[in-house]
Every structure is written in C-alpha cells, then in structure tokens.
Specification:
The complex is a heterodimer of chains A (342) and B (542).
Chain A: H1 49-64, E1 69-73, H2 77-82, E2 87-88, E3 94-96, H3 102-115, E4 122-128, H4 129-134, H5 137-145, E5 150-156, H6 197-203, E6 208-213, H7 217-228, E7 234-239, H8 243-246, H9 253-263, E8 269-272, E9 275-279, H10 288-292, H11 308-325
Parallel strand pairs in A: 1-3, 1-4, 4-5, 5-7, 6-7
Antiparallel strand pairs in A: 6-8, 8-9
Chain B: E1 13-14, E2 26-30, H1 36-40, H2 47-55, H3 59-66, H4 73-79, H5 83-87, H6 99-113, E3 127-131, H7 135-146, E4 150-154, H8 163-166, H9 175-186, E5 191-193, H10 201-207, E6 212-215, E7 221-222, E8 235-237, H11 238-246, E9 256-260, H12 264-275, E10 280-284, H13 296-304, E11 308-310, E12 313-319, E13 322-330, E14 336-346, E15 349-352, E16 356-357, E17 371-372, E18 375-376, E19 389-391, H14 402-420, H15 457-462, H16 473-480, H17 494-498, E20 504-508, E21 512-515, H18 525-529, E22 535-539
Parallel strand pairs in B: 3-4, 3-6, 4-5, 6-19, 8-15, 9-10, 9-15, 10-11
Antiparallel strand pairs in B: 2-22, 7-16, 12-13, 13-14, 17-18, 20-21
Classes of the chains: A alpha/beta (342), B alpha/beta (542).
Bound molecules: thiamine diphosphate, iron/sulfur cluster and magnesium ion.
Chain lengths: 342, 542
C-alpha cells in the first residue's frame, strides 16, 4: 500500500483471517500449515464444538511450543470420538487413562520431563466439564496446589455428553438433561447449585486462568499462547456448544457460543496469581432469550407455557456477571471478583 | 503375523481412513451472489469487484475493473445519483458505503497518474457511426472501440460532452475532469467530428459507408408552456440559460430569479442564477416537495445554498418585474388542482425548466422508426426499427441520467458488435441477489461513512468552484474497506477456521477455498459463519 495509514480493515480481527492484515496478525487457524492436532475422520457429531475447541486450543499451543507438546486426555467425548481403536485423530503425542485422573497423569508427565531435563517439552491436560469439575476435581485441585507445570483445558459443554447428556456440576440452571428432566414446578436443572470452575481455579492463585469460547478465536488463541508463556499450573475453560446435548442446530455452534458472551451468560476474563487482570467487553448486548430460544434444552421455557419468571432469573444471573466482571464498555471500574480482599 | 504387544491385534492407523463425508445429507457449496450495489448500477459496474482491489490499496487494479464497464468514473463519481448506495446493504448496519466517493477518487487518480486502457482486439474492419458525444455516445464509442471497430462520432456542438458540458454546471462537474475523461476515450483511436449536425441518418450512413449507427442525440429542446407575459418580461429556457453560462457571455439575470419546474435542471438553474449574481432565487413548482422529480440530494444542496422553494404553485402570468402565481391543492389522486388564490412574486428573470424533448428531425422521414410520447422505440438489443441503427440515452424510453446513458452505450455497443457478426448478444443470467439476511454482519468492524468535505455554503454561492470535495487516499481506502463484499468471497478464512472436521481446503491468495467432501459431515457451520453469504447448503445427491 502506498500512501496511507489506516486502522480499519473490513472485518478487523473478528474473522478467522483477513487478507488485508499482514501475516503476523493472522490466527493459527488461518494458516494452511496449522498442525491440525485433531485431524479429519474423527467421529464427533456434526457441528461439534468440542472438536473445534480442541483443534483451536491445541494448534495454538503447538505453535507456542514449536510442536513440542504432549497431551493427557480424560475419558469423555473428546477421547472417545478421536480414538476408536485402532484409529487416532491426534497428530500430537497423546495419552488417555481414566475419566477422573487426567490432571494426575499430566503431573506425572511434567515430573518425568523435569527429571529428564526436557523443560522444552510442555504438557497439556484436557477433559470435559464432568471430568474437570466433578470426578477430576480432586486431582485437578492437587495439580493446582502443587503448581505443576501443566496447562489444563476444560472443554465445557455443560453436561456428561458422552454417556447421554447427564447433569454435571457445570450444567446451567433450568437446562434439561437426562437427569434433570423438564418436569414439575422448576423444570430442568435447579437454580443455586453447581460450581464456577474458572473462579475456583482463580481461588487457587495459580499463575494463569482464562475463559474462552469457540466464537472468539483471536481471543482464545491469544490466551493459549499467553498460558504457554507461564511455568506452573494454568487453567483455560472453553465453552464448547454441543448440538446433540443442547438440542441446537449443527450450524449454530459458533453462533451460540457468541450469544453466550453477548448476553453475559458466559463472561470472558483472565486472571494471574489470583487477580482478575482483564475482561472482554460485550460488543452488541442482547437479552438472554436470544441465547436460550434456539436451544432445545430450554424449550420448556417457551412451550407449551411460556415461563417468563424463569427467563427473568436467568437474565438476573447474566446481569450479575455483567456487573461483576464489568462486561459493558465503559464499565472498567466494575467490581472484580478475585480482586484484593474478595 | 506380525508380533504385537499383549492384547494388541491391530496396527495404529490414522482416522483419515474414516471418510465421515458419508454421514452428510446436505453439502455446502460456494456461490457468488449479486451484490445489491451491482444490481442497482445502471452502468452495470461490478462495484463489489473493484472495491475488492481498492480495499488492498491497489487503486490501479480497482480502476481497471471499473472502466471495464464505465469509461467515465471521475464524472460519474461526481454526478451520478448513486442508486448503488441506495441499495447498499451496509445502510442497514450503519451507513451505505460511499461508493461514489471511491469511484471519483479512482477516476481522479487515473487522470493524475495517466492510467489508460488499450485496445487488445484486432481491428474488425467494421465502421460504426455514433451520433452525439454525451455520456451515452461516448460510452458506446468507447466499448465499440475496445471491441475492435472503427468509430466516428458526429457532434453538433462546438465541444464534446453533450449535457455533461451544456447542462451540468461546473460546480458539480469541473471541465478539466470532463475534458480529461473525454480525451482518454478519444485516444482509443476514435474520430470525433465537432459541429457536425446530422440532417439525415441514412444519408450519413451511406456517405461515410458505416456498417452500423448508434444514435445518442439526447434531449436538448426545452419544453415550453404557454404563459401570458408582458413584452418586457425576461423569460429564458433553462437549457439555453445553462448552456450560455458555459460558453459565451453569461446572461444577465437581475436580482430576483424565479425558476419554474421541479427537476434537476431547475435546481441547477437556481443555483447557477445565484452564482451569476442573483440575490434571490426562487423555485416555483406545481406539486409538493416529495413529488419533485429532482434527486433529493440535489434538492437538499439547493436549499442549503439559500434557494427558496414555493411548492404547489403555478405561474399564471409574467409581468414587468414580477410574476403572478396561483396556489394549488392536491386532489385525491395526488394531482394539483387550481384554488383561485393568487399571489405575486418579484422576478427580474423567469427561467423555465419544464422538461426536455428530443429533436427527431434526423429520423423524422424514416418509416421504420417509431416515436411514441416523444421518445424513440428500441428493442431489447437497443436497435430501432431500422436494421443496423441503434439508439440509447435520453432519446429512448428510460429515466434520463448520465449513468443510464452510459449503461445504454455499453449495452448497445455489445449488441452492435454481435449484430455486425450476424449474431445476437447473449446476456448472462444474473446471480441470485445477496440480500441483507444472507450476511453474518457480526464479523464486520463498526465504521461510519467518511463525510466528504463540503465547501462552506457562502463560498459555494458565489463561485463555480466544485461544491463537494474528493476523498484522500487514506479515507478512500477506509471507505472501500467498509464494503461487506455482499455475496462474494473475500477470503476471510472463516470457513477454513470454523469447520470442526478440517474439511475446508484453503487454496491460497485469490484462489479462495474448496470443500473436502471426503470428510465434510454437512454441519453447515461454514454457511452460518460466512460473513458475506457466499456458501449455501444443497441437498446431497443420493
Ligand atoms: C469412573 C468412570 N465413571 C463413569 C464413566 C463413564 N463416562 C465416560 S465419559 C462420561 C461423561 C463425560 O462427560 P464430560 O467429562 O463432561 O465430557 P463430555 O463427554 O461431555 O465431553 C462418563 C460418565 C467412566 N468412563 N469412568
Ligand atoms: S456493502 Fe459493498 S458489496 Fe454490499 S452493497 Fe454495499 S458496496 Fe455493494
Ligand atoms: Mg461435558
């Protein structure tokens, strides 16, 4: 370009790539030579957010470590759909053991690498929300507490999807699962239960914690890359919509992840050593109904009898996130959880 | 059998062996849709296409794309009423892309940089006569020359340009710009004969042994209306008023000028009168503002210059130094009816801008020509009833604008080219429209339209300097990048990124993408996340 200096680039950095930006600002996913850590032929459902999230995160980690990466994987969809014997979709060294022990396996890997003096090789451990917040929680908390040099990634699809959509500690209120049927006065999952795993990780005061979604690729990749710049225990919690479990269109996976952020339902933030350091602002705020309506797991909120009072309670939760994390533009001074004294 | 560890019976294999494409019931397919701007452009420009190059700052490639359809971008960027912008999808997001600003920038840059097109076709050996050097005739001559034909233009006036010179005032179209673009067209080897009025088309055709003729005579006769007037009353028709302020002695208009009519010519006349020294110009129009045929932009600019408007009024007589107008009301069909209420307005000069007619004397004697409602009838190929004689622009049934004329010229050139080969020009099927609901606008940056600097009203009232300024390189680039590339892939990599099955193949710069149907499961995510709506799902063939 000859005689101009402008900042505006058609899609800016919202899209995966942008032919108008120089290469350095491209995502890993825009690169034809990306590692495709999780390659084609896997047996994830059509439109699987978890398969997408795993490739996004691991390809970014692969770039950050120049290909020196080992992964430990908990039982769950990600493991099952990628490795039906004797096939594997993994194009990285990858190990599976049990449903609940992926953090412990990773701890062992990191310890072994340390003994061998191979600090250049980095360890990632990954699990679904069930494997993270429920059965794996003890191992994970220990891994955090010891500050083992592992990046743990939780792919949160908000239920035990692999065994048929049972409720987990990460299932949101009012959502229908196989174990929280849409019946009775308070249909679906109950309000006031479950765990906020990202904040639990922050409370462990580990070097780095972040949340991300499959809708914000630049943000996700930046966070993975940043996580790899730390030593010690790190945690990234990625929201990965599940068309099967959520009863949504296979084409809507990215869209729903985007709506989860734009409603305030899923706040995007980063924390270092127990302090929240950054939050992503909502770009075009929308009411929670826009996020809930396309999902079959919330159908009972709309038919046969509309349940505005439940919608209102979900909206209140989103509004609480917005206030807590300062998600609206110009709300920088909002109360930051995990900030000093809280 | 190979030795295997305990409990292992098979070799490790890649999941690439598992062709998940067999799960698919629908397949994604890349398409190109018609962007609304292109759809709305009377000159048939591929606006989205040339903006694509401008987005990269490759202005020369953008200009080359532009002049494939329209040889007058610096002119059109100034005088076209830009239906492209009226149709632009970005208007539903914030404001339409300022297409005309970028077009003008490209046209001006071509002039300053000396970019020019060349004729690549071998000479066809055919001779074509174009009558009239307005936008229609020039456009036809340009396209015919590019198609390899030997073109001659006959122009009755002493200078080329038609209404662009004698109808559009300088403050809207500076003459150096007009001259430069005409010069560039003529440099393609076109012969231009000025002061060559055509008395009889058939005779001229024979005399010059032309194989085909394109008539672009325009509409140069001012319509008159009978208005009782005192002998001393000063009444001018708008066209000669505007023309005489172009060449020769500018007319003396006095202090108060009344312009009668509601079209673009009326607006130009009022604005010109103020520039010639009138302290007050008043437009008198018999219907309402909303019914004025003038383009809303022109009405606004005219009002901004302090011109007064008296709607729902007719002039019933002109006296010495004043006029008598009658107030009108609209009847239930929206037609103005007299009220019997009269008023007087002071007026030193009355300019009549009541519309224009074509002088058809060159074809009047021809039995195979059909003139209806003052305009010459042509077929779908723009051919008149006389084989080999084509016509376009203001003299045929259509709205009368520069850009429509340019479109006619291009269309006629292709028809003439085909006709000379004994064929008919094949029109390509138009792509389905890229409507706003096809876009995923979340991906586009928020960016308001760059406002072209306007000369302050006071300066503009007293001089013929150009009113609307141009874009600079940086804001032209900014403006181009506001384009959403409706319906046409602009290589944002979204499909390549969002496919959970890595079933999109990125082919490299300019080559777009393809689908790997061995693995595509048909989830449709690429369709939803394509910003510009360039992918569709089609039922899988079974
Ligand atoms: C100890 C143990 N209990 C139960 C199971 C059965 N099981 C396999 S995967 C799974 C659910 C996994 O859910 P989550 O961790 O959320 O991953 P997702 O499949 O949703 O990605 C369960 C219950 C098991 N493999 N091991
Ligand atoms: S956004 Fe671009 S492609 Fe779409 S209508 Fe406007 S100028 Fe044309
Ligand atoms: Mg799960």
């Amino acid at each position: 370009m000859d005689d101009q200096q402008v900042k505006f680039y058609q899609v800016g950095s919202f899209a995966v790539g942008n032919r108008l930006l120089d290469g350095g600002k491209h995502t890993v996913q825009a690169d034809r030579a990306r590692s495709n850590s999780l390659t084609s032929g896997h047996r994830a459902c059509q439109g699987c957010g978890e398969a997408l999230g795993a490739r996004y995160a691991l390809d970014a980690a692969m770039r950050a470590t120049e290909g020196r990466l080992i992964a430990a994987n908990a039982t769950g969809c990600l493991e099952v759909f990628s490795t039906p014997y004797p096939e594997t979709s993994w194009q990285i060294p990858w190990l599976h053991s049990l449903f609940g022990n992926a953090p412990a396996i990773a701890t062992g890997m990191a310890a072994a690498l340390k003994v061998k003096g191979r600090s250049d090789i980095r360890v990632v451990s990954q699990a679904g929300d069930g494997g993270t917040v429920d059965i794996g929680f003890g191992c994970l908390s220990g891994m955090f507490e010891r500050n083992d040099d592992v990046l743990f990634i939780c792919y949160d699809n908000e239920a035990y999807m692999n065994t048929g959509v049972q409720r987990s500690g990460a299932t949101p209120p009012a959502a229908r699962t196989a174990t929280t049927e849409a019946v009775g006065a308070e249909p679906g999952n109950v309000f006031g239960q479950g765990k906020n795993m990202p904040l639990l990780a922050v409370a462990h005061e580990i070097p780095y914690v972040a949340t991300a979604t499959v809708a914000e690729l630049h943000d996700l990749e930046r966070k993975v890359e940043k996580a790899m710049s730390f030593r010690g225990a790190r945690y990234i919690h990625i929201l990965v919509p599940c068309p099967l479990g959520w009863g949504s269109a296979t084409s809507d996976t990215v869209r729903l992840a985007r709506l989860a952020c734009e409603t305030g339902v899923f706040p995007l933030f980063e924390a270092e050593n127990g302090e929240i350091t950054a939050t992503s602002k909502i770009r075009h705020q929308v009411p929670v109904e826009e996020y809930l309506r396309p999902q079959g797991r919330y159908k009972h909120l709309f038919t046969p009898t509309p349940r505005p009072e439940i919608l209102k309670k979900i909206q209140q939760l989103a509004d609480r996130n917005i206030a807590r994390f300062g998600l609206l533009a110009g709300s920088d001074e909002a109360e930051l959880v995990g900030a000093e004294g809280s | 059998m190979m030795q295997k560890p305990f409990a292992i019976t098979l070799d490790v294999g890649s999941s690439l062996a598992n062709k998940t494409g067999s799960w698919r019931v629908e397949r994604p397919v890349y398409v190109d849709r018609m962007p609304p701007c292109n759809d709305g452009c009377p000159a048939g420009e591929n606006i989205q296409g040339w903006l694509y190059h401008a987005e990269e700052g490759d202005y020369e490639a953008a200009w080359r794309g532009l002049v494939e359809d329209n040889p007058l971008p610096a002119i059109c960027g100034r005088v076209c009423y830009h239906p492209c912008e009226t149709a632009c999808n970005r208007a539903k997001l914030d404001e339409a892309v300022g297409i005309h600003g970028v077009e003008r920038f490209l046209g001006d840059r071509a002039i300053s940089q000396g970019w020019h097109v060349t004729v690549d076709r071998p000479p066809s050996g055919k001779r074509v006569l174009v009558v009239g050097s307005g936008p229609t005739g020039l456009s036809a001559a340009y396209h015919l020359a590019l198609l390899g034909h030997a073109v001659t233009i006959y122009e009755a006036a002493p200078a080329p340009g038609g209404m662009m010179r004698y109808g559009i005032p300088k403050y809207r179209l500076p003459r150096d710009v007009l001259d430069a673009e005409i010069e560039a067209i003529c440099s393609l080897g076109i012969r231009l004969e000025l002061e060559h009025p055509v008395g009889d088309v058939v005779e001229e055709m024979q005399d010059g042994s032309y194989d085909a003729v394109f008539l672009a005579l325009g509409a140069q006769l001012s319509k008159r209306a009978y208005i009782p007037a005192a002998d001393s009353a000063r009444i001018l028709d708008a066209l000669s008023f505007l023309a005489s302020s172009e060449d020769g002695e500018p007319p003396r208009v006095g202090r108060r000028v009344v312009v009668y009519g509601g079209g673009n010519t009326a607006m130009d006349s009022a604005r010109t009168a103020q520039r010639l020294g009138a302290t007050e110009a008043v437009v008198v129009y018999r219907r309402t503002r909303a019914q004025m045929p003038a383009h809303p932009v022109e009405v606004e600019e005219t009002l901004a210059e302090g011109v007064k408007m008296t709607w729902l009024s007719t002039i019933s007589r002109v006296e010495d130094g004043k006029i008598v107008i009658e107030k009108m009301v609209l009847d239930e069909t929206g037609f103005p009816q007299p009220t019997g209420e009269f008023e007087t307005l002071e007026a030193d000069t009355v300019v009549l801008a009541l519309g224009q007619d074509t002088d058809m004397s060159a074809i009047a004697h021809m039995g195979d020509m059909s003139v209806r409602d003052g305009v010459l009838q042509v077929d779908d190929d723009m051919m008149t009833g006389h084989p080999g004689i084509f016509a376009g622009g203001d003299m045929v049934p259509a709205e009368r604008t520069v850009t429509i004329g340019i479109g006619h010229g291009k269309k006629a050139a292709h028809s003439i080219d085909a006709w000379l080969r004994g064929e008919r020009h094949a029109t390509v099927a138009r792509h389905e429209l890229a409507t706003f609901d096809r876009l995923n606008t979340w991906y586009y940056s928020d960016a308001p339209k760059t406002v072209q600097p306007e000369l302050e009203g006071i300066r503009r009232r007293s001089t013929f300097d150009e009113v609307v300024g141009g874009l600079e390189a940086d804001n032209a680039l900014f403006e181009a990048r506001r384009c959403l590339s409706c319906g046409n892939c602009f290589e944002c990599d979204n499909c390549f990124g969002v496919c959970p099955d890595n079933a999109v193949v990125k082919l490299g710069p300019g080559l777009r993408y393809s689908f790997d149907y061995d693995y595509c499961k048909g989830c449709g995510m690429c369709v939803t996340e394509c910003p510009c709506g360039a992918i569709v799902m089609e039922p899988e063939r079974v």
